[in-house]
């Protein structure tokens, strides 16, 4: 209570602030260590010592004052302390007495204590012996378990037991002989386990190799099912789109989703591999086992890639390719599930080796194949192989490129097969119009190839304007398109329509067109056959649009994209040219047949003395033949073709008439012969006019009738029959009436013209007068033509 006045008094006595701080810290029991260090650090310890001395002095003063204040109480305390000393001496005496008594009693207890300690020592030894015995029993029990596991083939448990003995018990086994025995057998047990596991693994290697073919076939079969389902879905979608475009129905889209786990489809056991890998990992030889696995699988792969020389490739390719597929499906599963047994780089290395070898094998085998069907089957299976392995992440582009490299070879074989088929169809054709008796035949032979000439269903029996060659060839072409698209599909290029179109053009131009053209231009072909072939070419040309649309559909190209004019096939124009060539060949045959009927040098009496008012018999045959040709052509040929054939035949007759006058076998002719030919020509002209009108050509061709094709012969006969033939020398009259005649030919012909002598009948006197006048005119024309030339 007096501390505050004292502090104030101290401050009044001249205490500095630093002295007060030190005093306060000492009073509070605080540590002065940091002040001491600080004073030595700043180099002023004297000041601190001075402060401490000053504090001591202050405390001494306080003590003196305190003693003075409590003097009486201090005296009383000293007295009490003396009393305490007396009590202490008494207590010390009692303690001595008690100690003696205690030692007397403790001697007996000490003996008991020694006995107790000895018992404790015995107990400790027994406990230690029991503990050691337990360790030995546990080790022996573990050894028995290990043997049991080894006998049962439970190598992992046996190995874990050995590791447990080695880790937790081996160093603690108290019996040295047992320890040595166990330590000696541990490596033997591990070696035994490794040997047994390796044997089981080797057996699995042989088993998985024999199962690879079945695995591959199952996976490829699944890929084929998926592809077929996708193709059916695309076909339904295309049909729906076509119906929607044509306005016949509403487009209905459906999405079929089928989730299928590949691992559930392909069941093969990798347990021996996992166990062997795990056991070797536990044995600490994981890398060694990985290398062993990789080398053995690589040896198996190299063996699988070797072709059997005893079996043709076309018979063994499925087994060969399925084995490869199964191999890499297994490797993919091992890579994904084994946890480091196989690296991605190792799988990639094996795959690259396989791709290189497989591409080489395919190129060699394809080069030896002579059947497009075999090549397509192999290609299709390879495409399925590629689709299968693509699902497992393998790059199959190089394999598909090998297929693309052989597509020319495939199409060459396919073209040759189609050439033989088309040649057989044409050689076996009846060259008669096809008779269709029912709807199904009409659908299969006409509508199927867009050969109909009308959208109205005809009445049956229906006589088609083409022969059976046309639908048969169309079926061959359609089959070719299917085979071509099948080969080109599922290759490197997803868009292969241009390639399919190119090969289609090649078939139509180099095969179909060539065979048809060769046939129509061959010797021994009849007019009816040539005419039917010409008509058939027209319908083959029409079918080109169907062929292109069919190819587009199979290639997945919208049909509307190939309906543009610029998108048509080149073969269409080539067939059109061949059709014209067929018309030329047909015309040659008709003209050749006409020459047989005409034979004017034999059928005409060029110097007859009799006047005939009737046409010749040969002309009746010519007209009858032309009528049959026109009737047949009208049924099967378009009108423009009929017009060309008709004009060509009549023009040929006209040229033949003129040529007959010029031939060397006709030395001279008279007016009676001209009159006969005039009658014949009139019959022919009447036939030409009637046919030109009845066929409807007169409505199409306003100028250039059939009669105009006989103009040269007509003008020649008119000139030879004219009373004033010298008018031919007049340019105006010649341009008007004889513009088709060549003056050189006329000069040669009139040189042969010799009028007959006068008759014996007086009634012909008038005619003789006319004849004489015409003879003078003819002589004048001869003279003028000689001067002109």
From TrEMBL:
Residues 51-220 form the Exocyst complex component EXOC6/Sec15 N-terminal domain. Residues 400-752 form the Exocyst complex subunit EXOC6/Sec15 C-terminal domain. InterPro entries: EXOC6/Sec15, EXOC6/Sec15_C, EXOC6/Sec15_C_dom1, EXOC6_Sec15_N, EXOC6PINT-1/Sec15/Tip20_C_dom2. Keywords: Coiled coil, Exocytosis, Transport. Belongs to the SEC15 family. PANTHER family: EXOCYST COMPLEX COMPONENT 6, SEC15. Component of the exocyst complex involved in the docking of exocytic vesicles with fusion sites on the plasma membrane. This is Exocyst complex component. It comes from Hibiscus sabdariffa.
């Amino acid at each position: 209570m007096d501390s505050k006045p004292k502090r104030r008094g101290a401050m009044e006595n001249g205490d500095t602030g630093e002295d007060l701080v030190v005093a306060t810290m000492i009073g509070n029991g605080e540590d002065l260590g940091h002040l001491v260090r600080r004073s030595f650090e700043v180099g002023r310890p004297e000041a601190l010592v001075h402060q401490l001395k000053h504090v001591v002095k202050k405390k001494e003063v306080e003590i003196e004052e305190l003693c003075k204040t409590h003097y009486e109480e201090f005296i009383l305390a000293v007295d009490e302390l003396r009393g305490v000393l007396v009590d202490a001496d008494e207590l010390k005496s009692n303690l001595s007495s008690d100690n003696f008594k205690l030692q007397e009693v403790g001697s007996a207890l000490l003996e008991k204590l020694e006995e107790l300690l000895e018992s404790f020592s015995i107990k400790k030894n027994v406990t230690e012996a029991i503990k050691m015995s337990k360790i030995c029993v546990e080790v022996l029990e573990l050894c028995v378990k290990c043997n049991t596991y080894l006998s049962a083939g439970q190598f992992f448990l046996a190995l874990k037991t050995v590791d447990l003995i080695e880790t937790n018990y081996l160093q603690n086994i108290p019996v040295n002989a047992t320890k040595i025995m166990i330590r000696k057998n541990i490596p033997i047990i591990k070696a035994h386990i490794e040997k047994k596991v390796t044997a089981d693994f080797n057996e699995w290697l042989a088993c998985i190799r024999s199962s690879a073919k079945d695995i591959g076939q199952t996976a490829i079969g699944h890929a084929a099912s998926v592809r077929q389902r996708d193709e059916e879905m695309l076909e339904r979608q295309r049909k729906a789109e076509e119906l929607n475009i044509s306005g016949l129905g509403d487009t209905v889209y459906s999405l079929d989703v089928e989730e299928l786990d590949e691992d559930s489809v392909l069941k093969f056991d990798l347990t021996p591999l996992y166990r062997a890998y795990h056991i070797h990992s536990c044995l600490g030889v994981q890398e060694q086992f990985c290398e062993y696995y990789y080398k053995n699988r690589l040896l198996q792969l190299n063996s699988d890639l070797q072709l059997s020389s005893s079996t043709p490739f076309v018979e063994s390719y499925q087994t060969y390719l399925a084995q490869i597929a199964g191999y890499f499906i297994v490797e993919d599963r091992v890579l994904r599930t084994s946890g480091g047994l196989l690296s991605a780089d190792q799988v990639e290395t094996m795959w690259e080796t396989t791709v290189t070898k497989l591409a080489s094998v395919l190129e060699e085998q394809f080069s030896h194949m002579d059947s497009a069907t075999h090549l397509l089957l192999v290609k299709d299976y390879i495409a399925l192989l590629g689709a299968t392995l693509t699902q497992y992440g393998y790059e199959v582009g190089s394999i598909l490129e090998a297929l693309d490299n052989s597509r020319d070879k495939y199409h060459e074989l396919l073209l040759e097969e189609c050439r033989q088929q088309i040649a057989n169809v044409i050689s076996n054709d009846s060259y008669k119009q096809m008779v269709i008796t029912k709807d199904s035949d009409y659908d299969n032979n006409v509508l199927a190839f867009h050969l109909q000439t009308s959208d109205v269903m005809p009445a049956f029996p229906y006589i088609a304007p083409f022969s059976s060659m046309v639908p048969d060839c169309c079926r061959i072409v359609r089959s070719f398109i299917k085979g071509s698209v099948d080969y080109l599909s599922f290759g490197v290029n997803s868009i292969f329509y241009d390639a399919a179109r190119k090969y289609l053009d090649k078939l139509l131009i180099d095969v179909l067109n060539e065979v048809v053209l060769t046939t129509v231009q061959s010797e021994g072909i009849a007019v009816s056959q040539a005419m039917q072939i010409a008509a058939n070419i027209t319908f083959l040309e029409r079918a080109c649009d169907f062929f292109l649309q069919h190819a587009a559909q199979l290639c997945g190209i919208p049909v509307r994209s190939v309906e543009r004019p610029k998108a048509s096939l080149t073969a269409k124009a080539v067939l059109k040219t061949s059709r014209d060539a067929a018309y030329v060949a047909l015309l040659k045959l008709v003209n050749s047949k006409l020459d047989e009927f005409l034979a004017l040098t034999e059928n005409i009496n060029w110097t007859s003395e009799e006047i005939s008012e009737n046409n010749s018999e040969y002309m009746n045959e010519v007209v009858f033949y032309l009528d049959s040709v026109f009737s047949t052509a009208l049924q099967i040929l378009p009108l423009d073709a009929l017009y060309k054939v008709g004009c060509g035949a009549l023009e040929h007759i006209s040229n033949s008439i003129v040529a007959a006058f010029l031939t060397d076998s006709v030395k001279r002719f008279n007016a009676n012969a001209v009159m006969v030919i005039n009658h014949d020509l009139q019959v022919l002209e009447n036939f030409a006019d009637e046919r030109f009108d009845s066929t409807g050509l007169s409505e199409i061709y306003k100028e250039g009738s059939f009669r105009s094709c006989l103009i040269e012969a007509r003008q020649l006969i008119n000139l030879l029959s004219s009373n004033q033939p010298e008018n031919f020398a007049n340019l105006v009259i010649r341009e008007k009436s004889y513009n088709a005649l060549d003056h050189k030919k006329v000069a040669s012909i009139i040189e042969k013209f010799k009028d007959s002598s006068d008759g014996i009948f007086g009634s012909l006197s008038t005619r003789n007068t006319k004849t004489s006048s015409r003879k003078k005119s003819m002589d004048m024309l001869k003279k003028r033509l000689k001067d002109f030339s």
